[in-house]
């Protein structure tokens, strides 16, 4: 049987959406008349194209989905998660600055899962290096999360922990 992670965690900036929520856009965010998400300047805020489908599918398949972000724009990040309708997919949101080892220690405490049961997607190499130290398998994201990247990530995980 293929070994699967119990928990899949996602970074936010340049992983689920193509910007830094603390610098490139202007919170607060809201939906306009046509249902598009906009910021204070009226700019259209979009996530990476395949992200909604990926999250929906993983949630349906029974994975525990969480966020681990080190942004300082906590309110804005939470607003965007909610406006995208992803609050129904994510069980736990760890969003605050600092080394991501802290975020994963919290996830471990809250879920009772071991680090080896978690898979993480993040665009920053420094986070991958940090999480290697505690044994969280991290997939480096290049151009946002896609179906293929998640498929490859799950395969990589299965090979490592078979
Ligand atoms: Mg990022």
Give me the secondary-structure topology:
Elements: E1 7-10, E2 30-31, E3 37-38, H1 51-60, E4 64-69, H2 74-83, E5 90-95, H3 100-111, E6 118-122, H4 125-134, E7 137-140, H5 147-160
Parallel strand pairs: 1-4, 1-6, 4-5, 6-7
Antiparallel strand pairs: 2-3
The structure holds magnesium ion.
**Poorly predicted ranges (pLDDT <50, ≥5 residues)?**
none
> What integer value in Å does the Rg equal?
15 Å
So, CATH architecture?
3-Layer(aba) Sandwich
Helical amount among residues, as a percent range?
25-40%
Q: Report the end-to-end length measured between terminal Cα atoms.
A: 9 Å
Q: What composes the largest sheet?
A: 5 strands, parallel
CATH fold naming: Rossmann fold
* SSE sequence, one letter per element: EEEHEHEHEHEH
Class by alpha and beta content: alpha/beta
Strand order of the largest sheet: 5-4-1-6-7
GO molecular function: acid phosphatase activity
Organism: Armadillidium nasatum
InterPro entries: HAD-like_sf (IPR036412), HAD_sf (IPR023214), HAD_SF_ppase_IIIC (IPR010033), MDP-1_euk (IPR035679), MDP_1_eu_arc (IPR010036)
Protein name: Magnesium-dependent phosphatase 1
